[in-house]
């Protein structure tokens, strides 16, 4: 988590003056830089699983849905020749988690008489609940419920990477179609390490992050420039391109300032100096492009970025995208050939 150290921006503020203006900012999920992922289901307790029902056998109960167990068998005894309704399994993470994708398998190829049970879920949809909310919401894309395409056999790991971070405390999986019986194992890929750009604003709620902490709310600021501090940003490359998304952002040096904190050994205590990034202008898709060239000593190291956007009453800053934000894969369905080495690969990445 980023430190909340106080950073003086006096130098950057020289040519900017504060104007009392309402700035409405939408929160977008893409601003967090995830630098490590972990599987979540495998570590939750038995009591955190619930389901609409299950087969009576003790080894195919909801908590058997972990990837290293047999699978959960929904209380459904049709032979998967029609669409399934009202069958679900739920996990409660006990607090909000940022989720990057879901992995599903069919019934494990082990246990007594295992060759008899060729069972898997071929498609499903997801509903989620944000902590302290009572309203279940479907995972949607372009306004329609996403029907995830899952398994075509019982043993392969199928990843469905989300197109946006899913922030949720509870998630329910509803099998929609199946083969044999609706039996599945599942796993969520969660953010384990990340850096988040924080808005520094006198009148903004403290600790407000430009990150999907509540995907359905817009935040308001009543002062510009919008000041953002991004601590712990990391990249393995010697330059990084940031794209500022928003509205009415004049993409020039007079209105947009991005500085990288210098590792300054000769500086006085409390003095912070910045290397400025190049403001490159607005791209075809309307985003303000910023190019930051890192010093050799900064490559692969956590660095602190300070960002300011000045403007007028129409100016909104909605998100900061970075080409250093890696994801677990392109959104959509992928077959994972080697599950343990996939987990190893995504544990620490930036
Ligand atoms: C989610 O979508 C499914 C399928 O379209 C629908 O049956 C269900 O009622 C929706 N749930 C919510 C909470 O809107
Ligand atoms: C949503 O819209 C985008 C852009 O138009 C498109 O690329 C994507 O395939 C759509 N997704 C779905 C599930 O329709
Ligand atoms: C940055 O890295 C690229 C290759 O990754 C290299 O070609 C280039 O010389 C480097 N630039 C500097 C200034 O080190
Ligand atoms: C700052 O620079 C010094 C000397 O160049 C180096 O030893 C030190 O590790 C650097 N610190 C950080 C946080 O990069």
Automatic annotation (TrEMBL):
Superkingdom in the source lineage: Eukaryota
**Residues in F5/8 type C domain copies:** 29-191
| Signal peptide extent | 1-29
Q: Which residues form a coiled coil?
A: none
Say if the entry is tagged with keyword Transmembrane helix.
Answer: no
Task: Give the record's keywords alphabetically.
Answer: Signal
Pfam families cross-referenced by the UniProt entry: F5_F8_type_C
- Enumerate the InterPro entries for this protein: FA58C (IPR000421), Galactose-bd-like_sf (IPR008979)
Give the SUPFAM superfamilies listed for this entry: Galactose-binding domain-like
Q: Which protein are we looking at?
A: F5/8 type C domain-containing protein
Give the organism's phylogenetic lineage.
Eukaryota, Metazoa, Spiralia, Lophotrochozoa, Annelida
